[in-house]
Design a protein that fits this description.
The chain is of the alpha/beta class and about 750 residues long. Helix content is about 30%, strand content about 20%. It has 22 helices and 32 strands. The chain has a seven-stranded parallel β-sheet, sandwiched between helices. Strands 16-28-27-19-26-25 form a six-stranded parallel β-sheet, sandwiched between helices. It has a five-stranded antiparallel β-sheet with strand order 2-1-4-3-5. It is globular, with a radius of gyration of 28 Å. It binds adenosine-5'-diphosphate (ADP) and zinc ion (2 copies). The site of one zinc ion has 8 residues, from loops.
Length: about 750
């Protein structure tokens, strides 16, 4: 079962085991094999327990070289080999090493990110039997026994003739099965059993979907032609154009070839709706890696994907690091979404790694979006990606009408103008649904005293604490600091404390007062913090006629609300005048996504965007000519300023409890780098939020016109930085291809 690795010295116990350890240190660690090791035991990709410092750690063998740079006498022996077969194959180890190199991140941490948490901590892998359920009575009896319990009946109907099903399959087919399962076990209609991995993954049934329209069919066949080799595709399709339908069709094709498919989606759009859509169409072979899984469940799923027992991996960004048996296609949905970038620790872009992953697996990769990132559009322009377009909404829904609403001379009620309120009224009177969107949760972003000018500053950040009426707290969204909302001004003791600006809570309050008889649902991180409550909220919306939805970007993505015909955007201006050069791109993407929520069913939709800058050129271009024209204009600005995608960047961040240390460290680094050739260094400067969680922050931006030059300098920088005297006094990190400088 175990293959002999390269560098394995035929037949004899390998001399050295090179081990990746999850430690913030560059490189690998050499060990001797355990004394009792047999020749086949020490294989790259197997986990090992090793002595490390005074304790022990779990690591992963990455290679078995004949020699070490460390003298043999100084090497310690591995305590135990934990796996009988490699968890990661050599090609995958290679991919992870590439990622560690590219992001200049300790390879041991990268490799451990490819394992499920449980296997990083627990020596013993879970026994590989999968709990399942089977009918304990005949199908007819089972139906009779559940005639009056629709959820139990739905569960029973999932079972074919005597075929056992796993809980995951049941969950995929009919939602959370916990309660009906228990009832059915109690009644004796179902019984528990256990499956071996082969049994559990045996069947993949795919059911046909819609008849594809011409553009969808063209997109599918373009990618299908590339099956079996690398090819990168950018699928640009307006919201509701049937991109997901294209993914499903391609996935079915991959399964038919006996290969696996990886589908990466943004955090926010891994909804039960999407999961169900995949499960319904692709059968029981869909592995869902969502945050609700227990550690054990995650490990089981990971194992089954690795062994090809589940052949559709649907997950968020970390899935791109996971091993997949016979990977035949990689799909990245909403490829522009910033949640594909990990913002701490190993700061990788799952979107970018997806392309490398596909390259290595020699399979196609499909990046889809209604609003592609400028990076991907540039790659399409350069011919690196082939552009596929879906220009029309599928199923006949018409695009929404979009109007800019000039609010400069409008009296506002909690941020809402008269024309918007009137339009909401009309929509609700027609028995249709409306959505009001604001990109801020809480009641108001600031609490201020009208007498003395006191504001609700966070004690630990250069930021304001947000007013949360529901919980009675002032709350910093950056560090989490909290205090009770004061009744008297902490500055002057006066009573003129007022919230300034608006958030979702305030809109909810205002709209509830204005439309007392209409069901009103707020969707934001606070309202949906409890597990499963988002689904409950969504069910309420789907069941209702007239209804109002108020929410943050959580509303903008993924969900399908066929009865929403009006979308109001409270404030479009935040993105227009930001110091971050990516802000307009994000604003445009968000507006288009939000607008895409309107009129997806058979009724036409309308979008009202409130702004104080109706004449702003980017907003005008977006409004009149759409996202593509906007992207062209924004791209011209980027080219002019030599910003990405016309250059390559890395950001070195430093922070410390004392204000002079981060700047000092970065200044020393700049001095030590001396001549940087054609690579530009900007800074160091204090970060836009110069203090956060009580720590002072600064950064240095490194930019080059060519990627190879940038990386050569980063190599040098990463060698020098740890040797500087300040390095131990600051916390520093490198962010390659940063998406913000915050
Ligand atoms: P997107 O992912 O681009 O937002 P979806 O794939 O979710 O679009 O499709 C939007 C709606 O149109 C869905 O309800 C879907 O079932 C439907 N749809 C997609 N393709 C077709 C088609 N070829 N014919 C009819 N309806 C379709
Ligand atoms: Zn005051
Ligand atoms: Zn704070």
């Amino acid at each position: 079962m175990c293959r002999a690795p390269a560098g394995y010295n035929g037949g004899m116990t390998p001399l050295i085991l090179r081990v990746a350890l999850p430690a913030p240190l560059p490189g690998f660690f050499d060990y001797l094999p355990p004394e009792d090791a047999a020749q086949g035991d020490c294989v790259p990709g197997c986990r090992v327990l090793v002595p490390f410092g005074r304790g022990s750690r779990i690591g992963l063998i990455v290679e078995c070289p004949a020699e070490s740079e460390v003298a043999r006498e100084r090497l310690r022996a591995v305590s135990a080999i934990l796996d009988s077969e490699p968890l990661l194959d050599p090609a995958h180890l290679d991919f992870l090493r590439w990622a560690a190199d590219y992001y200049h991140h300790p390879p041991g941490e990268v490799m451990s990110a490819a394992l499920p948490l449980r296997l990083r901590k627990q020596q013993r892998a879970l026994p590989f039997l999968i709990p399942a359920y089977r009918l304990a009575v005949s199908p007819g009896e089972a139906l009779d026994a559940t005639a009056r319990a629709p959820r139990q009946r739905a569960l029973v109907e999932c079972f074919g003739a005597a075929q056992p099903l796993t809980r995951a399959t049941l969950a995929a087919k009919c939602g959370d099965p916990a309660a009906p399962l228990r009832a059915l076990l109690d009644k004796g209609v179902l019984a528990r059993c256990e499956l071996t991995p082969d049994q559990a993954g045996a069947t993949v049934e795919t059911s046909p979907g819609h008849r594809l329209n011409a553009e969808q069919a063209a997109a599918v066949s373009a990618v299908e032609e590339a099956f079996g080799g690398f090819g990168a595709f950018l699928l640009q399709g307006v919201t509701g154009s049937g991109k997901t339908e294209v993914y499903l069709r391609l996935a079915a094709g991959v399964l038919a070839r006996g290969d696996s498919v990886m589908v990466l989606v943004p955090e926010i759009s891994l909804t039960p709706q999407l999961q169900q859509r995949f499960a319904e169409r692709l059968g029981g072979g869909v592995a869902l890696l969502h945050s609700g899984l227990s550690e054990g469940g995650r490990e089981q799923t990971w194992q089954r994907v690795r062994q090809g027992l589940l052949r559709v991996l649907l997950g968020t960004r970390s899935s791109v690091l996971y091993p997949v048996h016979r990977l035949g296609l990689v799909i990245v949905d909403e490829e522009h979404d910033s949640s594909f970038k990990q913002q701490e620790g190993f700061r990788y872009s799952a979107r970018d790694l997806a392309v490398i992953r596909a390259q290595r697996a020699e399979c196609p990769v499909l990046l889809g979006s209604a609003t592609p990132s400028l990076e991907s559009l540039r790659n399409a322009e350069l011919g690196r990606y082939r552009l596929l377009q879906l220009r029309e909404r599928a199923g006949g829904a018409r695009p929404p009408r979009i109007d800019l609403l000039d609010i400069r001379d409008q009296p506002l009620k909690s941020g809402l103008s008269e024309p918007l309120l009137r339009e909401l009224e009309r929509t609700l009177e027609r028995g249709e649904q409306a959505m009001v969107f604001i990109n801020r949760r809480g009641y108001a972003p600031v609490l201020a005293c009208y007498d003395c000018g006191w504001v609700s500053d966070c004690p630990r950040c250069d930021a304001r604490q947000t007013v949360h009426r529901g919980s009675g707290l002032l709350w910093c969204h950056h560090c989490g600091s909290q205090r009770r909302i004061p009744h008297r001004c902490p500055g002057c003791g006066g009573s003129e404390l007022h919230p300034l600006g608006q958030g979702t809570e305030q809109l909810e309050e205002r709209l509830a007062a204005h439309f007392p008889d209409v069901p009103l649902i707020r969707v934001d991180r606070d309202a949906t913090a409890r597990k499963g409550s988002l689904q409950a909220l969504l069910d309420r919306v789907h069941a209702a006629d007239a209804a109002l939805l108020v929410g943050t970007q959580m509303l903008a993505k993924g969900h399908h609300f066929p009865n929403v015909t009006l979308v109001g955007v409270v404030d479009a201006d935040g993105g227009l005048f930001s110091a971050d050069f990516r802000a307009p791109e994000r604003m445009a993407q968000l507006l288009v996504q939000v607008a895409g929520r309107a009129g997806r069913g058979d009724k036409p939709g309308r979008v009202l965007i409130q702004t104080r800058h109706p004449d702003h050129p980017l907003l005008q271009t977006l409004h009149r000519e759409g996202y593509e024209a906007f992207a062209r204009a924004a791209m011209a600005e980027r080219r002019e300023a030599a910003w990405p995608p016309y250059s390559y960047q890395a950001l070195l961040r430093a922070e410390a409890g004392r204000s002079d240390l981060p700047m000092g460290f970065l200044e020393d680094l700049v001095a030590a780098l001396q001549d940087t050739g054609e690579v530009e260094l900007w800074g160091p400067v204090p970060a836009p939020m110069a203090r956060r969680e009580g720590r002072y922050r600064a950064h240095l931006l490194v930019q080059a016109g060519r990627r190879d030059r940038l990386h050569r300098l980063l190599d040098r920088l990463m060698q020098i930085a740890p040797t500087l005297p300040g390095a131990r006094k600051v916390r520093w990190s490198l962010d390659v291809d940063p998406i913000d400088n915050y």
